[in-house]
Structure formats: C-alpha cells, structure tokens
C-alpha cells in the first residue's frame, strides 16, 4: 500500500523538487546582478555616474512593467471571477 501511494505521488514530488531546484538556481543568478554594459555596448563608454543613472532608469522601468503586468493579471482574474456565476 505504501509503495502504491509513493508511486502515485512520486511524479508530483519530482516536479516540485525540480521547480525548487530551478528557483534556487534563479535566485543565485539574480543575486549576482546584471551589468548593462555587457548587453548595450555604448553604455560602457559613459562615465560611471551616467552608467548608474541608466541602470537605475532601466531598473525603474522594469519594476513599473512588472507592476502593470501584475495589475493586468489581477484584472483578468477578477473578470473571470465575475464571469463565473457560481463562484
């Protein structure tokens, strides 16, 4: 009986372990930071103060985009919730 239950839940547990491993790897990558001058070569020519300003601007823009995406997903969720009569 125990082996049957283990065989039943093993794919789910394996999937959760894979997701946990992937997220821990992503945390290591994002913790290192991103050097913008590696991707946009003309920023490397600028002074470090200007590079910091452009990095801050791009970080702020990406944060605003993430907020807009979260808001649109939440609005979609609310429209689905209101669309289902038995909710």
Automatic annotation (TrEMBL):
Keyword set includes Transmembrane helix: yes
Record keywords: Membrane, Transmembrane, Transmembrane helix
Transmembrane segments: 56-74
The protein's name: Uncharacterized protein
Source organism (scientific name): Alicyclobacillus hesperidum
């Amino acid at each position: 009986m125990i082996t049957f239950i283990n065989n039943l839940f093993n794919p789910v547990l394996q999937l959760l372990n894979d997701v946990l491993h992937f997220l821990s790897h992503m945390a290591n990558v994002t913790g290192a930071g991103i050097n913008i001058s590696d991707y946009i070569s003309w920023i490397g020519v600028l002074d470090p103060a200007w590079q910091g300003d452009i990095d801050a601007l791009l970080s702020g823009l990406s944060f605003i985009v993430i907020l807009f995406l979260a808001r649109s997903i939440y609005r979609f969720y609310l429209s689905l919730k209101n669309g289902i009569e038995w909710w």
